[in-house]
Every structure is written in C-alpha cells, then in structure tokens.
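User: Could you check the structure of this?
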Amino acid sequence: MIGRVQHVAVPRGVPGTENNYSYPLVSHWFWSADGWASPTRSDNLLFGSGAIDFAGSGVVHMVGGIAGLWGALIEGPRIGRFDRAGRSVALRGHNASLVVLGTFLLWFGWYGFNPGSFLTIVKAYGDGGSYYGQWSAIGRTAVTTTLAGCTAALTTLFGKRLLVGHWNVIDVCNGLLGGFAAITSGCSVVEPWAAIVCGFVAAWVLIGCNKLAEKVKYDDPLEAAQLHGGCGAWGLLFTGLFATERYVTEVYSGGPGRPYGLFMGGGGKLLAAQVVQILVVMGWVTVTMGPLFYGLHKLKLLRVSDTDETAGMDLTRHGGFAYVYNDEDEASVEPEFMMRRVGPTDDASPFP
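Assistant: Sure, the predicted structure tokens are below.
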C-alpha cells in the first residue's frame, strides 16, 4: 500500500482494527493455554496436537500479509506500475543501501523473535541433567533461523539471476526475510538440515508469488503479502511436515504419542492442524480487514489523489523532495555552481 495511501487512513482505523481484533484473537486461539487450537492446551487438543506456530509464521506474518493483500487489492496499483498493455513496469527504488541496513537490523532482531520466544532458559530436558535442556533448544532455534534465512537469500539470489539475467541485492534481502518468516513457525522443533529445506522452498514460494502478482496486476512495493503471507503459510505447512517427535515433546508438554511431522513418521494430524490454522487466519483477517479497507475506499479516505501521487507524496504530503534523480532520458540541467580548475593566470598578483 505504500506510495499511495492517505495518512488519514492510518490513525483512523487500520492499526486499531488489526491490533484490537485481528492479532489478539488469532494469538489467543493459537498461543494461549486455553486457545481452541493451541498446542499448549492440557486437553481437547485440535487433532490431538494443536497447531504449532512457535514464534508466529501464521499469528504474526500471515495476519499482516493477508491484511496487506486486501489493502493493496482494494487500493489498486500505483500509477505507472503497469502499462496500457498490462505489462509490468519496474518502478525504481529509493535507496538500496538503506534496504540492506534495515535487513541486517531485522536479521539481528529475529534472534530475539525466535529464540527469544522461549519463556525460560534454565530448564532441563529428561535425563540430560546440566548438559541438555531448554538452553540447548534456544541455541538450536538460533541455528535453524540462520540456516533458513541464509539458504533463502542465496536461493533467491541465484534463482533470480537465472530468471532475469542479473544480480539484485533487493531480491537477496527479501529472500532472506522470506526464509525467516517461514522458519518462524517450526524453528524450535525441526532439525538444522530441515531448516535448509525450509529456506530453499521459501525462496521459490516468494519468487512464484511475485510472478503471480504481476500476472494479476497486483502491486505490493514491499512484497508484504507475498513474503509474509506466502512464506508464512509455507512455514506452517513445513512444520507439519518436518517437526521431529523428540523436539515436539520437549518444547510442548505431553507424553509419548503426540503427533509430529508427516515426513518424520508422525502421521498427518499435525499437518491437518497447520492447514486449519492457515484457513482460519485467512478467513478471520479477510472478515476484519477487508470491510475496513473497502469502507475507507468508498469514503475516499484510503488513497491519495492522482495529482498528489504523480507529484510525489514526499512533496505533496511532507513539503519537500526526499530524493534527487537524474534521468538519462531527460535533458541535463546545468548546475548553478561548478568547480573550476585552479591554475596560474596572467593577472598581476596583488602581493609583492
């Protein structure tokens, strides 16, 4: 939605509806000890398992991604994003260096997001004594997070190189975040090698979602729906496929026989619970955020005017230019001040 949404739409409903209705109910359903689909319930677990979404591939990322999907769909693409023939036109970004800096900040923060989701550290597992416990799970979670993100970044780098013929650092940044969004669900209950699989597939999910977005003329400058929604959904499915019995039992209370990943021999009950979470998140966010965006659109409170958007919101809404471009296809403008070469002259020096 960035680049064409009115600022008035932000304080007048979007964060309030999402923070008061979308996020709280979803987090209660899947994270609270008495949530109907929570894996920490003491009884009546969904499919005997509950949906495992350890740090929020669905609760956090899918909620935001689906909300952004509806906002961008109702708002429509930016002016110039698609030509009259319907072909995609790449609109130039602003500052790749800041994108990379922001990505590294998010990367650092993800270690608080995933390993930091453990509520305790000093907790022994089984007969491990002082050598094996929750501190080991926290370290493993940091490893799986790193492997998934880096694998997705490299896969996106080389995948886009094969598809479009050039290297693009922005694609690497988005691929990295896509891998992080995917591993967030199962980071505590999968083996490190499985995290590599998660990141590899997440990269192609992101690339595929972006291709689909272009086909249907969907404009999302930050790829929020594709990255957080698409990769978040893959992360939930990944957990249902690769969660290991040992780690599920350790991280989530319960005796032997608790469902775990389908590919790890645990049957399909956990995967079924993960599919239910995907459908519930999509449905609930659609019900809460779709009408809000549609109402703002009808009241003309969602999008800026074509004039303001064409002139640039930096100028029309903030009172100044944020970036200076020198287009090669436009006539060059001579600067008002130019450096001149300093050298000897024929003028007589005023000094003796």
